Every structure is written in C-alpha cells, then in structure tokens.
Amino acid sequence: MISPQRCELPWQEPQAMARILRARHGEQGLVWLDGDGSELGRWATLAVAPQEIICCRGLPGEPGATNPFNALRGLAPGHWCGWLSYEAAAWVEPGNPWASDGMATLWIARHDPVLRFDLQQRKVWIEATSTAALESLAQKLVTSAQQPRAETVSIPLAAWRHHTTTEQYAAGVQRIRDLIAAGDLFQANLTACCSTAWPQESSAIELFLTLRDACPAPFAGLIISDQNEALLSSSPERFLQVSAQGAVQTRPIKGTRPRHSEPEQDANLAAELVCSDKDRAENVMIVDLLRNDLGRTCQPGSIQVPQLVGLESYASVHHLTSVVEGQLKAGLSWVDLLETCWPGGSISGAPKLRACQRLHELEPTSRGPYCGSLLRIDWDGSFDSNILIRSLLRQGDTLRAHAGCGIVADSDPLCEAEELMWKLQPLLEALT
Predict the structure, then answer these.
(1) What residue ranges do the domains of the chain occupy?
(2) 172-189, pLDDT tens digit by residue?
(3) pTM, to two decimals
(4) Which residues are catalytic?
C-alpha cells in the first residue's frame, strides 16, 4: 500500500489536460479512466509517461508467450492501468480452443504521478509519491500555453467492413438455439466485428473524445500502448471491483433496448425491456453464473445480490443490470478472483467453458481486448475493472469495432441481429 502526496490544481476538464499532456509527452503510454459524472462514473484518472510497462503476448505453447496472470501477480506496489484480453482465458483453461489475436494479451503500465478528477465537484488533484514529480507536473499544467486545437475526426459508415453479415449472424443465433434445444448450452454471447483503416494523422485522444461526447458511460476509458495499439471504450459495465479490505462487487448487464428521442416512445422501450421474460431470464442466468464464480474465492455465506435485474439508462441504450457482492477469503488477492472469474460470464455464456468453445466455432475473428477488461490497481491496492463492450480497438493501421448479444432458447435470430446494430451503430455514427 502506498499513500501518495496530493496537490489540488485549478479546475480544467480532463480533455483539456489530456491535450496538454499529449503536446508535452506524446500519446504513447497515456491512460485515461473516464466517467460520465454519475455516481458510478464520478471519478476520472489521467496519466502519461509511465514509469514501468508490462506486456504479454501469445497463447500457451506459442513461442515467447507469457502468462498474463503470473505477470499481474508480480506487479510492484503503485498505480497501474491497462487491459487484459478475452483470450487470456487460454491460460486459465488451456484445454479449450482459443483464437490467437494480434494485440497484446496484457498491457499494463505504472504511472507516477497521476491526475485524479472529481467530475461532480469539478475538482482535480495531482497524486505522486515524489514531491519533485508532483511539483514538476503542476508547473507544466498551470503554466501551459494555450491548449492544442481539437482535430476533426470523420470515418464514413461505408468505410467499415463487416466480417459477419446480418444473415450469417442470424444463422449463428439459430445454431446456438439448436445447441440449447439439444441440451448442449443454456446461453451464449455471440459477437461480430467490423473494421476500417485507422484515419491517418488522427490522434487516439481525439477519436476517444468524439466517442465520449456521443456515448458517455461510467466505466469508459482510453489506453494507448507503446506498441502502436490502443483501446477506446465507452463501457457501461463493471466487471470486478475489489476494495483494499477485500469487498467484491460485479455488475453484469444483460438486456438491451435503444433510446428514443421522443420521451413517450423512450419510456415504452424501457418498459418493454423491464417486462421482457427473455431478457430477465438471461440476466438471472448470468447472475447465477457469477455467484458461482465469486463463490470460488469469496468467503462462504458472503455473496449477496442487492440488485436483481434493475433498469439503467445511458445515452444510446437502456440496460438491465444486476449487482452481486461478496468478501474475498483471507489470503487471496484480486488476481485470484480475476483468474477464477475469467472470462466474464456476461460476455461468454453458460456453462461458460462450453459456451466459449461453441463461440470459437461460430465467430470468424478473435476478440482481443474486446470482451476483456480495462484494469486499474490504485495506490492502496484496491482493484477495479470493466467489461470492454462498446469499445474500439486500434492495432497498427486498423481500427476494429465489435458488438454482441446474449442468445437464449427463445431468442429471435432477426431480432438479435437488429439488437447487434443498436449496440454497434452509436459507435460507428459517433465517428462520422
């Protein structure tokens, strides 16, 4: 546990400080954990120029591959941010088939100092273990010249190549329904991907700001690695949170409807979601799965469900969200919890390993950081993470967007294909 020094600065919006840091240090190694100003999304964190970077690539058996969970167990005390990819599950269950992805399985960096924003109170502090580092950053930010000018970002919808057509996705939904009818599965989260060329001369910060304006979310974030890779997330879903005292929380999302500009129609869509037996059953099924996952590392009798299938509304969608809580067993850490719960139940299925196997057969592309997590370890050793849905991925000169839907026995293939676009379209339209 580390107790950093703190220095309050005159308020500036996170985007203004992000542009100043980019102008002084470049984008490589920049992390920005963002919120939407709600109670869940009250705090934001921004840092650049990491002190230490850890990067793992590859799957078990591949040359040079390293176990990301072992790397996480070896982290030095400090403030760390990064991502863990969906395919890190290969290190948990090597007997299952997993698709190799070109992006890092784990990229995580330690920063000192960091900027911490209270988006509700409009306050900002520098946190650092060194007085010299704190004062140096404060001087740069307070005396900075006029902030760099915003860039214009535009990616036409026609520029995106969809790797799965609507017909193919609907066929995949039907295949999962057949497997459920045969007793092979109970539920599976089928995803699809589209990609385009990374807009030349564009900054990842400016793309993230464009996404942030259109799709604010409580567990959003931007991570720019030193490997020409980046993730830009507007995720509304927390995966795992662990306090310094071992209190655990997860917030699975299952059930989606689009928002509508007309208030009465918007309310009707929300009511339809709340009354949907299919969406409720899917959410409860994942709650049961996560209760079981948490039970492997939490104290017996500590697991509670304070919110079951509650309605939460965001800029572009309504969601059904549940909350599951527990208390870690003595002697276990957040890494133990993360490893036993990986991958997240809400983006895989039930039974989890069988669902992952069937999804591997049906999905033509690997997921990479999508459906993985953006991770944060705070100074006091507490841990938080999201589920990387509603996210864009940069790998070299390629930009990817993914979306998915949970499929159950009574899923309608064409309706699920339509829901896929509810989730994907706001991301693509934001960048036009």
Answers:
(1) 5-430
(2) 999 999 999 999 999 999
(3) 0.95
(4) 237, 254
